[in-house]
Design brief:
Helix 8 packs across helix 9. The chain has eleven helices and no strands. The longest helix is centred in the middle third of the chain and has 22 residues. The chain is globular. It has one domain. By secondary structure, the chain is mainly alpha-helical.
Amino acid sequence: MSYSTTIHGQDTNLYVQAQGGDAQSLEDLMCMHEGLVHHIVRQQWRGRLSYGQAIHAGRIGLWRAVLGFDPGRGYAFSTYAGVVIARHVWRAVHGAEKEEEAVLIPVLPALSVDPRTEVQAGEVQTALCAMVARLPVLQRWVVCTYYGLDGRGGCTLAELGRRRGCSRQAMHYHLRKALIALRHPAFSALLRALLDRNSRVAYRDALRAQERQR
C-alpha cells in the first residue's frame, strides 16, 4: 500500500491553525494522516515492539511533524513527516532492544529528503520539548500524557479524567489552557523563529487569537 499527500489551501490553513494552538485543527490533521503512520510502521523493522507500540511511537512523530511542517517550503507533508515518524519509531525500537543488549539495523523507508530538513526537525523537537517543560505541573502532565510525550502512546481526555478523578470537560479545560499558553510569544519565540513565523504580524495574530480564547 502506498501513501501520498497533496497540500490544498484548506489543509495549509489547518497546519497554521494547529501550530497556533488550535486543538481541533491539530486533531483533524492527526486523523487525516493516520494512514501515513501505518504506512511507515509497515516498512520498518519493529524488533521487540508490537505493531500497536510502534504505531503509538509513530503517532508521536506525526504530532511533532504537524507542528513543525512549513507548507511554504515546497515539499510534501508526507516527505517531511515520514522522516520524523520513522525516527520516533526507530527510537522506540532501539529503546526496547537496548534493554536486551541487542543490536538491530533499522529498515527506513526510501525517502528523498534534504538533510537540512532533518536538522530542522531535530531543532523543532528540542524547542517543542523546552516549551512544554515550562508549563505548570498539571498542564504539563495533561499535554505530555494526552499526546504521548511521556513515551506511553497517549490517551483520551476521558482516561485523563479517570486518572485525576474528574470529568473529561475538566481535562479539556486544562489542555486548552496549556495550548493557549504555548501559543504566547513568551513561550513560542524559539519555535516560531525555526518555523519562520516570528514576524510582528505573526506575533500580533497569535496574541489576538489568545485574547479571543480567554
